[in-house]
Amino acid sequence: MRATMTPQDLADRFVQKFGTRVSNVQVKERCEGVKKLPQKTVWMTVSREDINDAVAELISIDYPHLGVIAASDNGDMIDLLYHLQVFFGGKHEEICVVFTVQVPKSDPHVPTISGLIPGAVYSEREKQDMIGVTVDGIPDSRRIFLPDDFPENVYPWRKDEKGIPASMVRELWKVDRPTDRAVPPVAEPEPAEKKESEPVKDAPSGGAAE
C-alpha cells in the first residue's frame, strides 16, 4: 500500500518547496457521476523555467500519469496546462495536479518535460503544430497532426493573425458539386397499401340453439 496525501498536503508541500516560484495555488474538490465520486484537483501556476523542477517534485511524491498538456490562446499569452495525476488507480486517492505555464507570444518557447516523462513528447508536438509554441529540447519535432505541406506560421488554435485565415476555410458542401445539373427532385413517398379489414364475427349470445 503506497503512502498518499491529501490535496491540501500536496499544495502545502509545493508552497514550502518553491515559495514565490508557485502562485495561484488552489485546491478544489467536486463530485461527479451518479455515485458522486470525489474528484480532487490542485491548481498552481509555475514559470516555464520551473516546469521541470515542478514535475520532478511531483515525481518524488508519486510518479504521475500525464493526461494531457492543454493550451489556450489568451491574448498576449498562451497558457499551457499540464494535467497530471498522482496516486493513479487508488480508490478515492487520485489527485489531479495542474501546472499552468504562461508563455508570451513575443517569445513562444517552453522547455520539454520529456526527459522526465517520455510520453509527454506527443502532447508537446501537438502544441507546436496547433498553437505555435516551440518546445526547446524536444527529441522529436516532427509534425504530428498537420501534414508536412501545411503552411508555416499558421496555427489552428490561435485566435490572432496566426490562426486559420478565411482563405483556407473551404465550404465543403460546394466542393466538386456539378453546376450544370438540375437539383434532383425529391421522390414522392409511395402510398402505403391498404389491407382489407376482416369481417367482424358476431359474438356468441350464449342462448340455446333453435
Automatic annotation (TrEMBL):
Descriptive protein name: NADH-quinone oxidoreductase subunit C
Annotated source species: Methanospirillum purgamenti
Keyword Metal-binding recorded: no
MF terms in GO: NADH dehydrogenase (ubiquinone) activity; oxidoreductase activity
Gene3D superfamilies per UniProt: NADH:ubiquinone oxidoreductase, 30kDa subunit (3.30.460.80)
Top-level taxon: Archaea
Protease recorded as keyword: no
Bias kind Basic and acidic residues: ranges: 191-201
InterPro entries found in the cross-reference section: ComplexI_49kDa-like, NADH_quin_OxRdtase_su_C/D-like, NADH_UbQ_OxRdtase_30kDa_su
Region described as Disordered: 178-210
Domain NADH:ubiquinone oxidoreductase 30kDa subunit: 45-162
Keywords (A to Z) from UniProt: Oxidoreductase
Enzyme Commission number(s) of this protein: 1.6.5.11
